[in-house]
Write a structure and sequence with these properties.
The protein is α/β, with parallel strands linked by helices. Helix content is 27%, strand content 27%. The strands form 4 sheets. An 8-stranded mixed sheet has the order 1-2-12-3-13-17-15-16, with helices on both faces. A 6-stranded antiparallel sheet has the order 5-4-9-6-7-8, with no helix packed on it. The protein is globular, with a radius of gyration of 19 Å.
Length: 306
Amino acid sequence: MNFSLLKTLCSIHAPSGSEHNMTKFVLAYIKKEKKKWKVQPTILAGKEFHDTIVLVFGKPKTAMFAHLDSIGYTVGYSSSLIRIGGPASKSGFKLVGEDSKGPIECKLHVDKDRNLSYLYKREIDRGTTLTFKPNFRESEDYIQSPYMDNRLGVFTALKTAETLENGIIAFSTYEEHGGGTAQFLAKYIYEKYKVRQALICDITWITSGVQHGNGVAFSMRDSGIPRRTYLDQIKKILDKSKVLYQIEVESAGGSDGNVLQHSPYPFDWCFIGAPEDNVHSPDEKVAITDIEQMLKAYKVLMEKMN
């Protein structure tokens, strides 16, 4: 499998609130590649959608949500750093960004009281966003890189678009920092297209019950609880299509699915995504076999649930 697109996605600076870089890239990619796709989608983007993108194919009944943003840091006063979302923080991590004086590559420093700051040759403009330095590594069995969460979800969505005949792909923002746009996308999708079932195309964690190489994670719950009849429908399709999956059952964590559950719209939702190790760090690690099963799962579900 060719992962050059995934490598590019992982290198783009787009923490929560600064998704415009990713939005610009994804829109350019869609406009270039869509002529090769089975169905030409309606593309919804622009000021009224903030930095989100919605692709509408044929007569949709299901929407898949993939968030564009990542975790990171904001430069505060003096040399302090403020977390965007929940990044792993360890002294020596390399951070990159750009301010009015030019490109930046600095190091993260964590003191004994867990206060965060940067080490750099000059003062960085307040409000500048910093993210982990790109470092994409591919071996025979694994991909390891910052921001597999959720660039792998975006990659899966763009690959699903190649053969999708009926469905919606919604690229959301702000997921890593308190939810955000999934609710207004849900409102638009429900009122405009009467779609009320969703798949959450995101990345989950390696745990005692979810391991590398056992397939895509099919989450039956995290801090939110999807409707059981909807989960049963999905499970039947995955079983019949011989998708390799592992069932995830957690008490914490969340995604755009939780945002949908708290919306006033009757959305069914289910989180389906490959598990990763070294979460929210420069060394996020995903098994290639799990990526392959994630791609297979979305192709099958978006086809069979319509």
